[in-house]
Amino acid sequence: MNSNLCGLYGITDAVLMPSLEQLLAQVELSLQGGATIIQYRDKSEDKNKRRAQAQALQTLCQEYSVPMLINDDIELAVAVEAAGVHLGQSDGAVDEARRKLGNEAIIGVTCHDSIELAIQAEQQGADYLAFGAFFPSKTKPNAKPAPLHLLHDAKQKLSLPIVAIGGISMDNANQIITAGADMIAVIHALYAQNDIKATAQSFCQHFNN
Question: What is the C-alpha separation between 184 and 22, in angstroms, rounded?
């Protein structure tokens, strides 16, 4: 397992971080608190903004020796020399990402609540598999809920690191990790908090128990 692929996985949010300054300040606090991987997620059509933010975030994450992945955009990941990319089911193929980003890149794949999709992604050469949503999520309120036993089943059938996403909070993080998640991906429960650094530290504590 890639040693980076465990722990707290922070995902940026354009609403919570509308400016570049807020983006960098909030992500840096989460890095100081122990986040081990960061994903830049911005669904806007403003290519110049996305390029500038992703480039600045890549520089920040490099200072902390933490990999920064781009959500759903292989070309942007190439442009800013990101550590990798996170692909949804309709965002390009793993082999295309691998060809463009190289063998060292981290490529994650959304598998929703499907072991079958995860097996397929593993066979295609993904580096980690993301399941969810496990709880109601502000980011994707209509996501089909995934059962907790999915994490246990995934650990039995797959050899890649597992990311759990969707409504994960301080209240339920422990049961998600106990069920088998190697990483917990968090947006609002991390970046909407008053003390992001302390919140990140508290999430990281769950991995040390």
Answer: 23
Maximum distance among all Cα pairs of the chain, rounded to whole angstroms: 43
CATH number of 7-208: 3.20.20.70
Task: Please tell me the distance from the alpha carbon of residue 170 to that of residue 182, in angstroms, as a whole number.
Answer: 16
- What's the pLDDT at 66? 97
> Residue 1 has what pLDDT?
41
Task: Say how far apart CA 26 and CA 20 lie, in whole Å.
Answer: 10
Q: What is the pLDDT of residues 73-121, one digit of tens each?
A: 999 999 999 999 999 988 679 999 999 999 999 999 999 999 999 999 9
Please name the amino acid found at residue 95. Answer: D
Domain ranges of the chain: 7-208
Q: Are 186 and 8 in contact (CB under 8 A)?
A: yes
Computed over every residue of the chain, the mean pLDDT equals 94
pTM over 0.85: yes
Amino acid (1-letter code) at residue 5: L
Instruction: Please name the residues in contact with 87: beta carbons below 8 A apart, sequence gap of 6 or more.
Output: 72, 74, 93, 94, 97, 107, 108, 109, 110
* DSSP string computed for 164-178: EESS--TTTHHHHHH
Distances (CA, A) of 50 to 46, 62, 75: 6, 18, 12
Q: How far apart are CA 66 and CA 60, in angstroms?
A: 9
pLDDT score for 142: 77
Q: Please list, in sequence order, all residues whose beta carbon lies within 8 angstroms of the beta carbon of residue 47, skipping any fewer than 6 positions away.
A: none
